[in-house]
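input
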Amino acid sequence: MGKKNKKAAKDIVQPEPTAIQQPKTSIKPRSYMHIWIKVVLVAAVLLMYGKSVNYDFTIDDNIFYVKHSSVQKGIAGIPETFTYGSLEKFNGMKGLQPYRPVTLSSFAIQKQLFNNSAAKAHLINVVLYALLALVLFNVLLKLLPAAHPLVCATIVLLFAVHPVHTEVVASVKSQDELLSVLFALLALSYAATLIKGDKFSVKYGVLSIACYSLALLSKEGVFAMILIFPLAFRLLLSQSIKRSLVYTLPYLGTALLFLFARQLVLDGQVQNYQNTIMENVLYGATGFAEITATRMEILFHYQRLFFVPWPLSWDYSYNQVPVVDWTSITAWVSVLLYGGMLVFALLKIKKQPVISFGILFFLIMLSPTANLFFLNGSTVSERFLFFPSLGLIMAVVYGAAKLLKVDILNFTGTGIKKFKWIFGVVIVLFLCLSFIHSNDWESNFTIYKAGAENAPNSSRTNLSFGNQYLKLADMETNRQAKIEYYTNALKYFKRSTDILPSNKDALYNIGLCYAGLGDKRKAYESYQYALTFYPKHRSVLNNLGTAFFEEKKYDSAYMYFKRSYDADSSFPKSSQNLAIYYFTLGNYNQAIQYASNAVKLFKYQVIAYDVLSKAYKALGNEAEATKYQMLYFEMKAEADAAPEMNYIPEG
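output
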């Protein structure tokens, strides 16, 4: 009997150490190794993104920083960031919109200290990214006690150098991503310290909840962390299901409190902006087959960006990611891929807890922004992969270690050389790609150029790059260079309408280009064609009026100016042009009425001041004439000093 028991004991296979089974293995102090790992992390971040301090503000930086009225008040504007939606003080948007007061407050402080310095803003992003990498390393040491520090370092390095994260670091606006993820990781870190401690510590509990609150107020996407906390407690920190759920309750309460506060701020407001197929292809999908298949097509692109992060673009809208139905092979591959990941994670949740956690982390954190359950303002965006990618990296590293028979605890095993070579090469390759891609974010011209090249099937990327040439043409004084810029702009606007014939801005800009090139006939034809799609396009109508006015066809000019005004009475250009029309005809009172309305709508509508001055002078009112003449010179000087002030969005 004794012999049988001994034999049976020999036949028992001891399971490999997991995060739940923490082996009692004596490990020599590794503080020196930790220091070197942290030095390498910071060095990698500086190597990839240090040069970004020389970059301009780009794309959405105006929305949340440079032209956000609350932010531009500096510290005095911070209270407004908590009491309004985060877009309302930029463009007056009401209703459903982001609520990110901590991010806006950070920008307000930067404005106060550095006065819209792009260099300082980019430097802060680089510092935050380096800090995030260091915090992530410390968090992994706590969550993965059965892992060698070099395994944790591999995960963090892969995360830090992944090219798909370039946008988050190089775009100042994406400080919302950096802050939310940094605070979420700190919340997880303090929670791990609390749970692993010998005694219950109120301090760490309060710090964890406070950090999660700051994460939510930086960007809403970390709301999904309420599902990550119990998974981490159970799978990585060896807590029972009951204790994991109990520990999660304070975070759930915090998340619900955030939703309540957000609702209070946005309650009763009606959304005045509608997303279109231009931003998200799903708005062009019709029927169950197209909607569901296109969703899977979108999810596939996130896998592609993770595993093959090249080429990269700031935009993947219509028709870079197309609307498809279930005849699309990609949609079916995506179903099999994601379905297989989910099934594997659930089946292996006990034997491979870290891999399961990584997969579930990826799926959960990606779901709010992947257009899976509700639509957002983008088809696919690289920044949406920022936090979710961490889970997939964990799963890949642990999966590779399992396949190569690497001892996670001691960083040894028969396949350790292959493990080091594979991930070493990937890390160096990714670092180089990130270094190269960061150059694209130097300015709006460079990032839009890269977008048009790397996502050529997007109507939006072609439109945006065409706009850069159009701006150059408007600023250029040399006629030959001006023609070249208009010609290049026209090329990209036509590409944009080839992809999406109803692209409103591209249709209008084609007319602008022909007008700039001096081809009045084609400009007229282009404007008329645009009106077949948008009969009340205020800018097209206004420009047609201007063309007829220059030809002294005043009746036709008036008709188009009036149609533009009727289409949108808040458009200052139509009021100004009606004022010019009435002044030309000698109707000075009407001219004063429309010119006054123009400067009321937009104070840098400079010509309107000149009309007011001359109209009052014609009526014999010298005092008012002098007043508006002075205002004309004052506003003209301000507008000339800062041309962006004279910009009115076309519509």
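quick obs: The domain at 456-534 is CATH 1.25.40.10 (Serine Threonine Protein Phosphatase 5, Tetratricopeptide repeat).
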